[in-house]
Design goal:
The chain is mainly α. It has helices at 19-48, 56-73.
Length: 74
C-alpha cells in the first residue's frame, strides 16, 4: 500500500490563557461571589451557633478557583 500521509510534523498548540486576563476574570468572579459567600457563612453560623471552619473569603476564593477555569475552557 502507498503511504499518503503528509511528511509535515504535527504541531501541537497548547492554549495557555493570558495571565492578566485570567487574573481580571478571577478578581471579578471573586468579588461577585464574596457577598453570597458571606451570606451563606453567616446563615450557617447562625444555624449551628458556632463559627464555621472556612470563612467567607475562603469560600469565595474556592468558588472563583472553580468558575474561572470553566470560562477559559469554554
Amino acid at each position: 500500500m502507498t503511504d499518503i500521509t503528509p511528511d509535515m510534523p504535527v504541531q501541537v498548540r497548547s492554549h495557555v490563557p493570558p495571565k492578566r486576563e485570567y487574573c481580571v476574570y478571577f478578581g471579578l468572579i471573586f468579588l461577585a461571589t464574596l457577598p453570597l459567600a458571606t451570606l451563606t457563612w453567616a446563615l450557617q453560623a447562625g444555624r449551628t451557633l458556632s463559627v464555621p471552619e472556612r470563612g467567607p473569603v475562603a469560600r469565595a476564593w474556592s468558588q472563583a478557583r472553580i468558575i474561572t477555569p470553566m470560562i477559559f475552557a469554554a
